[in-house]
Structure formats: C-alpha cells, structure tokens
Amino acid sequence: MNASSPTTSCSGNRTGARESELVELVDDRGALTGTATVLDAHEAPGMLHRAFSIFLRRPDGRVLLQQRAAVKTRFPLRWGNTCCGHPVPEEAVTVSAARRLHEELDVSGVTLREVGVYQYFAEDPVTGRVEREYDHVLLGDVPDDVEFRPDPDEVAELRWVTVDTLLREIGDAPTAYAPWLEGVTRRLAAHLGPQLPDAVTESAAERSGGK
User: Which UniProt keywords apply (predicted)?
Assistant: First the structure.
C-alpha cells in the first residue's frame, strides 16, 4: 500500500475528548513528576510531558508517513511520522502506542521497540498551541501487504518514503512537516546507521527546538 486517503470514519471525531485525557508530566530525564490534561499540557508555555512517535517500516526500508487531519488542534495538515500520541499514565509506552496504532490506522499485532528519545519544544504559529515533549521514538516492522484503514478524524493521507529522502524533503520545505519530525527521524537514523543529510535550519515561521 503506497498511499491512502481516508473516506469513512471508524471512530467519530474524538479530538475534543482527547483534550481532557491525562498525560504524564516528566523532568528532563523522563522521570514522572505528575499528570495534567492534554489541553493544559499544550497551552503556552507548555508542560514537559511524555509522548511517543511511531515509525512503521516495510521490508524495503521505507517508513510510513501520515498527513495530520485538518481537525487536529496542533499542526493540522502537516506531514508527520506514522502515528503519535501520549501514553496513559503509569502504562507502558509500547502498550499505549499499540492501542493508538489500532485507533488511527486499524493495525494491530505490530511489535514496537524503542530506538531513541527526542525532547523538544514547538509552537504552532496558527493555533498558538505548543508541544513540549519527552518523545519516545518507536519502530515497528510490517509486511509489504499490510493494509490500513485510517480514521479521517486523525489522518488525511498516508505515504511511504525512505529515511534519507524524508530528511532531504524536510530541508526543502520544513513548514510542510510537523516540527518534531526531523528530530525523531534522526533518532531513527542513528539507530539504523546510514549516512544522512546535515540538520536543516530552523524556519523563521515558527519557534521550535529539540535535543
């Protein structure tokens, strides 16, 4: 499956409900310090909280990107990694991530493993919401014939791309992509070990940064 544009919803619009869910607040080392709602954690100046970013990979090495749905409250219609989310407080990151994959793409049974952590801040220049996340980068391998049924309340479109091509594309048009995507892709690249392009220059159109 090379690309997909969702046409029917399997879950209804959960965007508002997700804003009231709890996330784990953490310190710079990822240690739990408390909880807050998704809404409160993403109001400026933001609260550092645990998140995950999933990449699904085919046997040919390409990874799956999603274009975030227009109804997203942060960075709508930007291209991001396969799936993102926040683990339920005190639940294993991979357990929460597997559930999110099923909710967004109707995929289950994928073994996810952590390949790095990316801590970053980003401010959405359109909505004013912020991301301040301690982001666990997860990788899962899927077969060539995997099928997806994306939830259109979450995903506008899907496409496959190689890691090195993705980093070049981000360099050419950074504001077409979610601000965390370069950082989490570089964590994946460091795990995989290829030679990749130098880091892109931060766009003047939005404030962001990571480590």
Answer: Cytoplasm, Isomerase, Isoprene biosynthesis, Magnesium, Manganese, Metal-binding
